[in-house]
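Duplicate of #3305? Posting structure anyway:
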C-alpha cells in the first residue's frame, strides 16, 4: 500500500503490458496528483489506451502496481472503482435498453443498490428533460 500522506491520487509504479513479443507499456511510473489535469498523448500504438484500460481494471497488467487514492487496485478493486469514471473511445449505448435501463445498468456496475439506482436515474432523466424518453 502506498503511504497515506502521498499526494498521488493515481500512482503507477513500473507498469508493464505486452501482447506476445509486442511491448505495449514498458516500466511506466508516474503520479497524478489531486486537482491535476492529465492526458496521455502519443501516436497510435504508443500504449495510451492500454494504460488507461489497466488503470480502470479492464485489462490485466503484466507487472507493476497501480494505486488509486493510495489503495492498490489489485488488492481492493471494488473500492478503487468507486473513485473512477471512464469515457470510452466508442459510444456505448445498448439499443435494446431504454434510457432508464441504461442508467440503472451503469449504476449497478458501481454496486449502487437497485432502489437507489432507480430513484437517482429517474431524477437525472428529469433534470435533463428526458422523462419522456425513459421507456
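Output from current build:
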Amino acid at each position: 500500500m502506498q503511504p497515506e500522506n502521498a499526494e498521488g491520487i493515481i500512482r503507477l509504479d513500473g507498469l508493464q503490458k505486452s501482447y506476445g513479443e509486442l511491448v505495449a507499456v514498458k516500466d511506466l511510473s508516474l503520479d497524478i496528483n489531486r486537482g491535476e489535469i492529465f492526458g496521455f498523448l502519443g501516436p497510435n500504438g504508443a500504449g495510451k489506451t492500454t494504460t488507461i484500460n489497466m488503470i480502470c481494471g479492464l485489462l490485466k497488467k503484466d507487472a507493476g502496481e497501480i494505486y488509486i487514492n493510495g489503495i492498490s487496485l489489485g488488492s481492493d478493486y471494488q473500492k478503487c472503482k468507486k473513485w473512477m469514471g471512464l469515457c470510452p473511445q466508442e459510444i456505448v449505448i445498448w439499443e435494446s435498453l431504454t434510457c432508464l435501463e441504461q442508467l440503472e445498468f451503469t449504476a449497478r456496475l458501481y454496486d449502487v443498490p437497485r432502489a437507489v439506482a432507480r430513484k437517482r436515474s429517474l431524477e437525472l432523466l428529469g433534470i435533463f428533460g428526458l422523462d419522456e424518453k425513459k421507456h
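Confirmed duplicate; merging threads. The radius of gyration is 18 Å. The chain is about 30% helix and 25% strand.
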